[in-house]
Amino acid sequence: MYAMDDLIDTKRGLQSASMFIDPHLYEVEMEKIFGRCWLFLTHESAIPNYGDFVTAKMGEDEVLVVRQADGTVKAFLNVCRHRGARVCPVEAGNRRAFVCSYHGWSYAADGSLATVPFEKELYGGKIDRCAHGLKEVAKVDSYRGFLFGNFDPGAISLEDYLGDVRWYLDIWMEASGGVELIGAPARSIVHCNWKAPTENFVGDAYHVGWTHASSLAVSRSMFSPMSGNQRLPPAGAGAQIATRFGHGLGILYDVNPGGQPAQTAEKILAWQATKKGKIAEKYGELKARFYGSHLNGSLFPNVSYLWGTNTFKIWQPRGPSETEVWTWAIAEKDTPEDLKRDIYNGVHGTFGTAGYWEADDNDNMESASLLPTGWQSRKLRLNAQMGIGNDTVMDEMPGVIGQAAIGETSYRGYYRFYDEILKLPSWDAFDLNDEGWKQQLIDADC
Ligand SMILES: CCSc1ccccc1
Ligand code: FES
Ligand SMILES: [Fe+3]
């Protein structure tokens, strides 16, 4: 059994390897993280009309996300209130009612219990209908079209929960003119703990040259000069950012198309050149530069994205050692259709189920997650000390900043909040104005 205080050492940027394997910790994570944090559901554009729905996952819970008649969105556990069978077996569609395939109970789009077969004859009218509607997810909210849900009615708002990271999300969710998720997500299983890939995307530019050496060599991408660790990005080529709620990212300046194959990268650069001037006028030079940069990021607990390599991922936990990966391609809404198709193909060829970048990563995710099965291996500490002691704050961009293209500032930020939320009695006990988290990260040192 893990000891909570031995799990995360924010002061020294260390984490216990047991966090990837401990089944008791996993249950605490499901309760205290997935039961209380804002979890990605879908994008508004996927359910535009009344009755449109998708099924999604919130931790290990399967939910039904439905557009309501009044234009709002509700989410429900996709679980029949009679004997618990799945109410909606399909991933997406349009329904005004959902009928359970087991005994035929039906529910309206607003989750209320609509019909019960032979209700009078078999129940004598004794069913409390109000108590048998689909269990509603306490809160659903949207940020720039990205819909999130929260099981905890006492949780802080989505806007507060995203906090400083909104400034960086707005680079591609707003300044770009807005984005869309293209098509249905590719789904695959990786034999790893859900945190391993999330931490990789939050801040691991360090692995790109080594893990992806062959992918970089064959793709002739903008990252290819890093192949095999031939060279580091030059000094001042990027930054690492940590924010209050564990959300973090890395930025590699001016190389937006990042891991896209060369021919797609050229088209993306030409397309972005037509927009950058207007973005600079409206949002300033810094955001315009970041629009043309490559961003790798994660939103706590399990959302990741690559702005530039156009990838959007959810790492759905399925036990401590298995993760179901949902991968979408993201593109700016106003991208020409032929380029959107190239981007889609590029994403699913790199980070999709059978993508060559994905295959590189999965080996690392699986070994890092499964080796702590060893009783001695799980006692090891994982090192996230790159750049420790050099983190700072800057006037021009929010969060705690590591001023290096490769560093582990956002790892330390991710696990700092992981530690805090696991120990938080309830959101009532949370002080949104406490800025101490910044000093915790700035004071960290080996
Ligand atoms: C094109 C992949 S670049 C990257 C950087 C950091 C984390 C994950 C991926
Ligand atoms: S489990 Fe759904 S109607 Fe019985
Ligand atoms: Fe990778």
Automatic annotation (TrEMBL):
GO terms for molecular function: 2 iron, 2 sulfur cluster binding; dioxygenase activity; iron ion binding. Residues 38-129 form the Rieske domain. InterPro entries: ARHD_Rieske_2Fe_2S, RHO_NdoB-like_C, Rieske_2Fe-2S, Rieske_2Fe-2S_sf, Ring_hydroxy_dOase_asu_C_dom, Rng_hydr_dOase-A. It holds the Pfam family Rieske. Keywords: 2Fe-2S, Aromatic hydrocarbons catabolism, Dioxygenase, Iron, Iron-sulfur, Metal-binding, NAD, Oxidoreductase. PANTHER family: 3-PHENYLPROPIONATE_CINNAMIC ACID DIOXYGENASE SUBUNIT ALPHA, CHOLINE MONOOXYGENASE, CHLOROPLASTIC. Belongs to the bacterial ring-hydroxylating dioxygenase alpha subunit family. This is Aromatic ring-hydroxylating dioxygenase subunit alpha.
